[in-house]
Amino acid sequence: MLKVISFPKNESPKQITNIWQILRNAEGEESAALPSGKVIVPFSWWLARGRRHEFSQRIINQDIGVWFSADDDVLAHANIILEDQDLWSVIAVDFPVFRDGRGFSTATLLRQRLGWSGELQAIGDVLIDQLLQLSRVGFDTFVLRHDQNIENGLKQFDLYGVSFQNDWRSNRTLLSQVNL
User: Fold this and answer.
1) pLDDT digits (tens, 9 = 90+) for 92-105
2) pTM (two decimals)
3) Which domain holds residue 168?
4) How many other β-carbons are positioned within 10 Å of the β-carbon of residue 163?
5) What does the alpha-carbon distance between residue 31 and residue 80 come to, in Å, rounded to a whole number?
């Protein structure tokens, strides 16, 4: 099974087994069937099918989450997200290519403006070079690209002990706390 990095707020980063599968290429499919187990569906799929009665037991069992593409405008759908976020076990944000930074903004909006306090996954083209910045804007689970080394990814969180800006995890380091 796929391993991911989990770094919940106020905890240490660790390697865990990924229990979620990502439903991709669901656009235009008439079938509302979902694979068994825990699944993260595209937000567009959720808009079209998510509240159907046939999925109510899976929602109760916390087996469904949603993922946002880089093109999804979370502020345009803020009312739906605020109304439905209690139904989702996890929210994921897709990075179609590593140089596409829109997912950073999506995470910030979900955490700060829309009040998402649950698990926030970074999926897609996620590199170990991005982990510190991803964790600072609110991501707490990282599904690395297949060619990335998870052990090296875990080491990224130990590189710096001082922060010069406030972020989702903590406030900046005060000068009185720095040993010069």
Assistant:
1) 999 999 899 999 99
2) 0.88
3) 3-177
4) 14
5) 23
